[in-house]
């Protein structure tokens, strides 16, 4: 699979590139993603209470991943008819157990967070206000 070029559009993108260059740890990057705005495609219109949220899922090696993007412009037009804009911490806190997350799928700077990594990160988030 050919990955699309990745140019930084948001502050979090610079941090992703820093992590790719080993200038930022994976744990520090997760904290940065939690502080960033994320764009999450949904197949249905999301209500304020979060109901009707139907994320775009990718299956990989037996795990299910929710797709998220760090810039609205990266979301392919044909991905889903709706787009949820949310704080990363809010997204991770509400994500049901058993799901992984793929940030910027299809791009050279995509990040795969497996379900066990998401679960550990959710525990970290619960310990912080």
Topology, number of strands = 6
Amount of helix = 25-40%
Query: Helical stretch count?
Result: 4
Hey, roughly how much beta strand do the residues contain? 15-25%
Q: What is the CATH superfamily?
A: Uncharacterised protein PF11572, DUF3234
Structural class: alpha+beta
What kind of oligomer do you see? single chain
Largest sheet geometry: 4 strands, mixed
**Ends distance:** 40 Å
CATH architecture: 3-Layer(aba) Sandwich
In the predicted model, the low-confidence regions spanning at least 5 consecutive residues are none
Structure description:
25% of the residues are buried. The model has no long low-confidence stretch (mean pLDDT 94). By secondary structure, the chain is an alpha+beta fold. Helix 1 (11-20) packs antiparallel against helix 2 (26-35). The chain has a 4-stranded mixed sheet. The protein has a single domain (11-127), classed as Trna Endonuclease, Chain: A, domain 1 (3-Layer(aba) Sandwich), CATH 3.40.1350.90. It is built from 4 helices and 6 strands. It has helices spanning 11-20, 26-35, 88-94, 115-127, and strands at 37-42, 57-60, 63-68, 82-87, 99-103, 111-113.
């Amino acid at each position: 699979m050919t990955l699309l070029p990745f140019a930084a559009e948001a502050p979090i993108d610079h941090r992703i590139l820093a992590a790719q260059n080993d200038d930022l740890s994976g744990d520090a990057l997760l904290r940065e993603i939690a502080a960033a705005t994320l764009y999450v495609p949904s197949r249905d219109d999301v209500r304020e209470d979060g109901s009707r949220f139907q994320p775009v899922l990718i299956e990989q090696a037996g795990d299910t991943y929710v797709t998220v993007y760090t810039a609205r412009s990266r979301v392919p037009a044909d991905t889903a008819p709706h787009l949820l804009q949310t704080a990363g911490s809010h997204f991770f806190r509400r994500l049901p157990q058993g799901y992984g997350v793929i940030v910027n799928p299809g791009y050279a700077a995509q990040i795969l967070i497996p379900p066990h990594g998401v679960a550990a990160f959710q525990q970290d988030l619960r310990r912080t206000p």
